[in-house]
Every structure is written in C-alpha cells, then in structure tokens.
Amino acid sequence: NSRNIKNVITEQMMEWSTNPSDGKNYYIPMKYVGLPEGSWLVCRWDLVSEYNDGKWPETTPEWIALFEKIKQELPEAVVLSNCLEKSGYALTCEGRVLYRLYGLPNPWTGGNLIWDFANQKFENEFVTQEYKEATKVLRDLYEKGVLYEEFATVENYSDIRANKAVVAVANDSNQVGLLQSADPCPITGNEVIWRMAAPLTEFPEVVRYPEIAYGTATNGLSSHSMYISSSCKNPDRAFDVLEVMASEEFRDLCVWGLEGYSYEMVDGERVPIPEVLKLDAEDPEVFRWQRQFLTIWGFPSYRVYDEAVAKLENEEFANAQIEATGRIDEIAKNTPMTPDKLPGYEASDEVNRKTPESLTSMSTTTVNFIMGRMTEADFDQAVADWQTKYGFIADEMTEYANSFDKDEAAALGIKFTLD
After folding, report:
1. What are phi and psi of 124, to 5 degrees?
2. From CA 101, how far away is CA 203, in angstroms rounded?
3. Residue 402 contacts residue 342 (beta carbons within 8 Å)
4. pLDDT tens string for the chain (419 positions)?
5. Which of 80, 137, 114 is nearest to 366 (CA)?
6. Which residues pair with 124 in a beta bridge?
7. What is d(CA 369, CA 364) in angstroms, rounded to the nearest whole number?
8. Which end of the chain is more exposed for a tag (fewer CB within 10 A), N or C?
9. Is 173 helix (H, G, I), strand (E, B) or coil?
C-alpha cells in the first residue's frame, strides 16, 4: 500500500533485506546510491606530486620506491602507519595500503574471505600468496623505518595522520573530501591535499584477480534501516511518517533546505547561498537541514549539495577531487558483485565462536613476522597451522555459495566467474 517508499526502495532491495531464517522482511532498508563507489588508496597528493614528478606511481614497485624516497627526504615523516581499532584484526586503513597494492580488497579490515574464481571456492586472504608478498614488503619497510615503528600499538592514528605526513591510507571513494584543507602540513609547511590515487597500470605478477582490486558494484543498500516497533500503538500513522520521509519534497528539504534562505534557483539549478554556510551552526535561530532523517533516501542524497558547495569554494579543486574518485568509481560500478555478497548466509555457532580467535591468531602472526620475530619458514608454518585449525570457516561459506541458485545470483548481479 506504499505511495512513496516503493518508488525509492525497489522489490529487489527488499529481497536483499529478507530475513534468512524465515524469508520475511522486518525493516525498510536505507538506499545507498549516489556516492562514488569502490575503494583504493587515498594519498597525500602534495607529497606524491613533489617527490614523483607530478604524477601518480603506476605500479606497486613504483609506490614502494616512492614511500622509501619520501622517508629519505623527510626523515621525521611517518610515511606508512596503521589504524588500530581493536576489532580483532590488527591492520586497517593505513595498515592495509600494501595489501591493496597486492590486489586484496577491503580497506577497513583484513582476514577477508576471497572468492577463488579458478577453483570456485572461498579462501581466507591470510593463506594467499598475495598476502604473504605484501607482508614481506611491510617487513622490509619496517626494517628501513618507512613503516611506523609503533604500527602494532598506535592508538592516536588520527593525530599521526594529521601531523606526521602519513602518505597513504586505504579507504573508500566516498570518504574523499571535496574541500581544500585549511591547515598546512606541520612537517612540510605546504597545503595538504588528500586525493584518490590513480589505478595501477599493472599489478604484481602474483596478483591473480586484479579485476576486483578496486571493489565491485553494490546492491545499493547500506546497513542502516527503519523499523516500526511491534509495541507501536498506531503503526498506520507511523507508516505515514515513513511515507513522508520517502517523498521527494522531504528529501530536497533535508538536502537543500529552504529556497531563498539556504539556496536560490539559477538557470533552473539549485545553488547554495554562501552567506548561510558562514552562520553559527550552534545558533538555534539558524536553520540547518537535517541529513540524519534521510534514512530511506539514504545519506548519499546530499552528494549533489556537497559538490555544489565545494565548487563555490574552489571549483578547480572540487573538480579534481571528483575526477580522481571517478576513475575508481567507474571501475567498481562495472565490476559485478562477487559471491561473498550472496544474501541469506547464516554462520554456524562454531564459525561465530572461532572467527574472533582466528583474527587474533592471524594478527599475531602477521605482526610478529613484520617485526622480525619470525623467520619466513616460521611464518609459512604458522599460516599452514592456521589453515588446519580455521580453514573450515571458508569451507562453510563455500558450501553455501555452491548451493545458491546460480540464476538467482545472476539476477542479483552476482557472478561466480570473471568471463
């Protein structure tokens, strides 16, 4: 009976949101379409440009050489660091840079299940040759002082990133800012420019699946959602509220505010009014459009406004940021989803119990090897032992994937092969 929601949230989106236990829908998912897709390296373009002749490195060896060169030229710089979030796996964001350069996806965490297209099965990245080669490079960079000496314990990673000339962070395209930073780099004194790096012209030979290195298309949803409580006394009225929130008028109010106050129409296009941007956001008399209410349309709905504001501030800079993320976005959107995106999988109790333990184990092994506390032979043995103990986690997901109806998967945009 929906008037507006069905125009925003499609039937396929609702299918993605089905409860795997009973096949029912218990919530309205948030649409997440409109931001750049994919992920790669977000880097200090000001440093890359200065020390690499005004261009992006094109290969993994070129990136490694650049990291070493910057450390040599700026000894006080923390060229490569880590984001320690205590989520079970030790290396995230800054700590994922080398793994991305060796074709492994996901900027936020490690220990990911990777679909092995050649053998039609899942494997944990920890047991792959790509992971080992990336970790060997990190070991070498640690010995040379290019990788931050406290990478395994750093907690003030945001301060390190802001003040110590960290060169690269693995991140999503939608996290790249559109506005020029106002604060100069404390080490170089130059303006700081964080920008999405260009894709490589080639990956190392060990990388088996460069096609998915920058991410894939998505199902157009986020993990946010809207519910009506089972204890709600008037669910029909509650649903009417959701219908309003799914209207185009409500979306535009949240994104743009009021015509004549926060934007004006110029040649049929909305243009932000700069004076409003300078008003005190803490003043209760100042109208602020409420993006948190975009829980059906999705937060990406405000991208058009952010781009417009950024272009008013510095159009050349904003266009350069948009173009840089656009290169990765174009690759990701044209790469079909892989079987790890299959809906409906429910991990067994044993997998749920052992997964945190497995992440801690691989983190310990990885960190010890990087810090020179293990030989390469010790590392290989530890990985083999890990696979014996925890390989069943990938096997369970493989069994689920191979039992999934392939025509249904194809209809959802998921492919099991690269052809």
Report:
1. -75, 135
2. 7
3. no
4. 688 999 999 999 999 999 888 889 999 999 999 999 999 999 999 999 999 999 999 999 999 999 999 999 999 999 999 998 666 788 999 999 999 999 999 888 889 999 999 999 999 999 999 999 999 999 999 999 999 999 999 888 889 999 999 999 999 999 999 999 888 999 999 999 999 999 999 999 999 999 999 999 999 999 899 999 999 999 999 999 999 999 999 999 989 988 988 899 999 999 998 887 777 767 777 666 677 889 999 989 989 999 999 999 999 999 999 999 999 999 999 999 999 999 999 999 999 999 999 999 999 999 999 999 999 999 999 999 999 999 999 999 999 999 999 999 999 999 999 98
5. 137
6. 113
7. 9
8. C
9. helix
Query: Do residues 28 and 242 make contact, with C-beta atoms less than 8 angstroms apart?
Result: yes
DSSP H helical ranges for 257-348: 274-277, 303-333
Separation between Cα atoms, residue 162 and residue 94, nearest integer Å: 12
Coil/strand/helix, residue 158: helix
**Residue 43: Cβ within 10 Å count:** 26
DSSP state for residue 263 in the 8-state scheme? E
Provide the token pair at 212. 């998915």
Tokens of 92: 């995230």
Residue 85's closest CA among 158, 177, 168? 158
Q: Is 94 left (phi over 0), alpha (psi -120 to 50) or beta?
A: alpha
Can you name the residues that pair with 28 across neighbouring β-strands?
226
CB neighbour list of residue 175: distance below 8 Å, 6 or more residues apart: 42
Q: Helix (H) and strand (E) counts for the chain?
A: 15, 9
Residue type, 235: P
Handedness of CA 347, 349, 355, 361 (dihedral sign): negative
Q: Tell me whether residue 220 is exposed, middle or buried, using C-beta atoms within 10 angstroms of its C-beta: 0 to 12, 13 to 18, 19 or more.
A: buried
Q: How far apart are CA 103 and CA 42, in angstroms?
A: 16
Both structure tokens of 5:
């929601």
CA atoms within a 13 Å half-sphere pointing along the CA-CB vector of 335: 22
Task: Take residue 315 and report the two structure tokens written for it.
Answer: 């159009």
CB 97 within 8 A of CB 80: yes
- Following DSSP, what letter does each residue of 89-106 receive, concatenated? SS--GGGGHHHHHTT---
Residue 87 DSSP code: S
Cα dist. 217→13, 116, 230, 328 in Å?
14, 18, 34, 11
